[in-house]
Amino acid sequence: MNVSPTAKYFRTGSWILLSLLAVIVGLYPSLYFVLGEKFGLLRSKPPALLTNTLWRIGFYAHILPGGLALLIGWLQFNRRLRERRVQFHRQLGKVYVIAVLISSLAGFCIGFTATAGPVAQAGFICLAIVWFTTTLLAYTTIIKGNTAQHEKLMIYSYAACLAAVTLRLWLPLLVYELHQFVIAYRVVAWLCWVPNIFVAWLIARRPSAA
Question: Which of 46, 149, 150, 175 has the smallest number of CB atoms closer than 10 Å to its CB?
Answer without folding.
Answer: 46
